[in-house]
Amino acid sequence: MDSVRSPEWPVAPLGGIAANSAAARYGSPTGPQPAASAPPPHRSPATGVASVPRPAPAAAPPIPVKILIAGGFGVGKTTTVGAISEIAPLTTEAEMTTAGIGIDDPGVRSAKTTTTVAMDFGCVTIDRSLKLYLFGTPGQARFGFMWDDLARGALGALVVVDSARLDDCYPAIDFFERAGLPFVVGVNAFDGRLAHDLDAIRWALAVGDHVPLVQFDARDRLSVRDALLVVLDRALERATRERKS
């Protein structure tokens, strides 16, 4: 089959510029440009041996850090993970039914209608070198068997507390004290206020001064971030102390 070309553009001479090229239509400020060629390899003045430039090394991926978000039933663990996660959090929520009346009590101030039956999962990048993977534990005692598996490989934990229902967080604090895992107590300010001040809460929980106790809002991303940074500081302090010993 014969080739077909547009009659508007004449055939370029051998080695010349095509008539429909940008250089021919708009001109070139510096005139005709020589054909591009690969840069010559660098030769060492000492040895005279040519060396090829090496590509820059790829940036190292961020270090993964596993953090638990634990606490009693209905204290705001799922809300905490969802507020800070940079991905759509994985949740395992199930509708609360009448079978849970008298067993699962979220408190009179809560409008909670679902509950976590396995775990919550989310992640957040702190900087180029660090990425947190957040695992929220179920709050009901009947799911306590999962805590050992979720805690495996974790560097620290944030124990979320409702100041109006302090007795619900005792099992979580006991668990991390027995496991020897660094943890921070985060008192969730429901409706922006606490039922007791932080000193009274520390006394009621019987935790030592070495355990950080902070107030935060589980719905606010920046507030959750600040609480997680305290957990990281606690884990780093623990790791530094163990390395020196």
UniProtKB/TrEMBL annotation:
Stretches with biased composition (Low complexity): 44-53
Entries under InterPro entries matching the protein: Gliding_Motility_GTPase (IPR052705), Gpn (IPR004130), P-loop_NTPase (IPR027417)
Keyword annotations: GTP-binding, Hydrolase, Nucleotide-binding
GO molecular function: GTP binding; hydrolase activity
Keyword Nucleotide-binding listed: yes
Xref: CDD domains: Ras_like_GTPase (cd00882)
One Pfam match: ATP_bind_1
Region annotated Disordered, chain positions: 23-55
Family as reported in the entry's similarity comment: Belongs to the GPN-loop GTPase family.
PANTHER family associated with the record: ATP/GTP-BINDING PROTEIN-RELATED, GLIDING MOTILITY PROTEIN MGLA
Protein name, as recorded: Signal recognition particle receptor subunit beta, a GTPase
Source organism of the structure: Micromonospora echinofusca
